[in-house]
Amino acid sequence: MDSIAAPATLDDPLYYLRNFETVLRWVSHCHGDLLDDAERAFVAGVAAQPVAARALLTRMVMRKGELFRADKLRYPEIGPAMPALASLEAAGWVRRDGDLTLDDLFRLYTKAELGRALAPRLAAAGLDRHGRKADWLATLAEHPPAPRPLPAWDPEGHLPPAWWLTVMPVCERLRLMFFGNLYQSWSEFVLAELGTFRYERVRLDATTRPYRHRADLDAWLAVHACRERFEAGEPVEAVAADLPDGDTGNPWVEERRHKLRYKLARQWEREDQLERAEALYAQCRHPDARARRLRVLERRGEYRAALALASEAAAAPESEAERQQLGRLLPRLHRKLDLPRPVSTPPPATEQWSLTLPVSRLMRAGSVEGAVAEHFHREDAPVCYVENTLFTGLFGLLCWEAVFAPLPGAFFHPFQSGPADLHGPDFLARRRERFAAAFADLDSGRHRRRILDTFRRKYGTQSPFVHWGALSEPLLELALDCIPATHLARHGERLLADIKANRAGLPDLIQFFPARGEYRMIEVKGPGDRLQDNQRRWLAYFAEQGMPAVVCKVAWEAG
Description:
Layout: H1 15-31, H2 37-48, H3 51-62, E1 67-69, H4 81-90, E2 94-95, H5 102-108, H6 111-117, H7 119-124, H8 133-140, H9 150-153, E3 162-165, H10 168-179, H11 187-194, H12 214-231, H13 236-242, H14 251-270, H15 274-282, H16 289-299, H17 303-315, H18 320-336, E4 351-357, H19 359-365, H20 368-376, E5 383-385, H21 390-398, H22 400-403, H23 427-430, H24 432-444, H25 447-458, H26 473-482, H27 485-497, H28 499-502, E6 509-513, E7 518-525, H29 533-545, E8 549-556
Parallel strand pairs: 4-8, 7-8
Antiparallel strand pairs: 1-3, 2-3, 5-6, 6-7
Helix pairs in contact: 1-10, 3-4, 12-13, 12-14, 14-15, 15-16, 16-17, 17-18, 19-20, 21-27, 25-26
């Protein structure tokens, strides 16, 4: 982690201020050309404020909302809040003359305080002063008064003053520049310092940032605002009308824009606004948009249009998942149009086992997977519950350097658990030589040392592929004794073909046979449980590649 962005020690009572100032320095260093004059003035102005004012500003920025009671801003390391607030008010960063809504008032003050301040209003509404605060708000909100300053709500001065933080938009933009998103919060610094999370150290500088132009940030924030409106329940039509149109050329913005477009179309589909949904899906580059559009066309009875689009998709499917869906859709469309059934090749069969176990074993094991593992486990043939962790973890350890390569736009702050372009279309292409070097170790037999050495050196460091709690050195050694390098290569190749889809769906259990250096994977299905699509795809691939896997269907003994 670059020293410019290292978290402050928690022994410092002003650690949060140090971390906030770190973000300001980082943004000025790496994104200075993206700041406007007001933002540069804010960054410079923070440094000029007294320590207490800077600390209180940081506390307010890191708390929820933009409206605060002065008497609740109590921090021992800062001292009295009013001198600090006065300094911030002089800078124009807080104010106390804003209008409060009814909701603001009820959110900010207690029932006892409101009972005194609003006594005439409560009486006029026929409300019992000893009633519930929520009932007061519900009744008053039926005819809500217009927003007004605090003295207009409370002429006799019963309520402590309220302060508005006016610089949250600037601070949110700075946070976006630092993290590249708005779902990570300032607490990342604290979690890193506590050791709760460890992150890979990747070289960071101005060339790695995800946003090249200020317009990129403006577009990202516009998409984010639309998403918040949609999640707050605003009508799809209103949000869709304001969603930025036209390709920005920035992959991070475009990914979020098309993801929101997909969600809007999906909501229209749920509301049976099928014509609108189909039109929006047609404009969407989300990976699942074409499949949803086909479903909508089928629901509308536009079978010929659906067949034309499905045939186009079948010629160049975007993923194995889409190919699987088309395998179901095309015969259905042909049947509805009285066309000959298309020729298809069934996937390779997977061996099926049937197993009947006593219910007592389920009770003892705690899960159906545990009961099956206990049934097959032997001292010379141990069974482990690994699901999506073992093969994917071996891949992540083998390819650590490739995954964490310091490429432009992949890492842009020190708190990333993986590259930002992990699910991007160019993820593999940009790292092809690095992955080839890691896979070459599988050919030469050097992979064992590389995997175990990475496990020891990087243990606990965040990774999109390695789930440390599910792995141990003995498990890795056992797996490397029994799983051929060629099978690890085949798994890695398929994982890289579609990381988002293929990180899941792997079998629940693995059984090792160390004496003969073999293994088998076991997918467990209890009564009424069916194979999911991603599981079917993995099992078909295993069968094609000669990788041993079975499906074990479990029933319970009567009584």
